[in-house]
Amino acid sequence: MIHNLSQSDSIINQYLSEIRDINIQKDSWRFRKNLERIGQLIAFEISKELEYKPIPVTTPLGIADSKVLAQQPVIATILRAGLPLHMGILDVFDKAENAFISAYRRHHKDHSFDIALEYVSCPPLDNKTLILCDPMLATGSSMVLTFKSLLNHGKPKHTHIVCAIASKQGIDYVKKNMPDVNYTLWCGAIDDELTSTAYIVPGLGDAGDLAFGEKM
Asked: Could you give the CA distance from residue 93 to residue 150 in angstroms, rounded to a whole number?
């Protein structure tokens, strides 16, 4: 299942327009905040897909029949660009467990690159709901490689992949190369093109640099 949230009118479209805008991007705080907001909104949509259990809640005047999550999800993010999106999702699922993955593009002299994983911190995942987020789904290779690495910590019962902007090529790659697992892809928007250097067009540029400053 693939959800393209830009296809319906909601406030998420305003936040997407602002993270794309070359002038608004100059405010790194606002860029991070808008990614957080997008994370919050997508987390709310994901919350509709989860299981709940009834509980009695004691109020000052009586007992209220309520519902709460039957199980907390695990939120995983690819460092460093994914941190604002992660924090937005964590604002909604504030009791969730968390996982962090260090992944980056290792460039070669011929302008090609591969994906290097250097660090994974993750709780057990067996039979849990995993929410894996990264603001940009470009080629899709880092997302698939990261997910396969997380499987070393157990097999989730369902995985929700979250990105602010995806390319059609990245989505196709995920479809073809994800292991045989249950997953749902949530995209703020889906763009048509990918450059020869694997940047999404129109996209927004380098999310990590815009959020935290240029890297060496």
From this structure: 20
Tell whether omega for the bond before 56 is within 30 degrees of 0, i.e. cis.
no
| pTM beyond 0.70 | yes
Residue 135, classed as helix, strand or coil, is coil
Q: Which residue has the tokens 């990261």?
A: 146
- How large is the greatest C-alpha to C-alpha distance in the chain, in angstroms? 71
Residue whose C-alpha is closest to residue 191's, from 12, 15, 16 = 16
Q: What is the mean pLDDT of residues 136-164?
A: 94
- Find the mean pLDDT for residues 171-177: 95
What is the number of other CB atoms lying within 10 angstroms of the CB of residue 40? 18
Give the CA radius of gyration of the chain: 18
pLDDT (0 to 100) of residue 187: 97
**What is the rounded distance in angstroms from the CA atom of residue 3 to the CA atom of residue 113?**
29
Could you tell me whether strands 136-137 and 129-133 are parallel, antiparallel, or unpaired per DSSP bridges?
unpaired
2-212 is a CATH 3.40.50.2020 domain: yes
Label each residue of 2-67 as H, E or C.
Answer: EEEHHHCCCCHHHHHHHHHCCCHHHCHHHHHHHHHHHHHHHHHHHHCCCCEEEEEEEECCEEEEEE
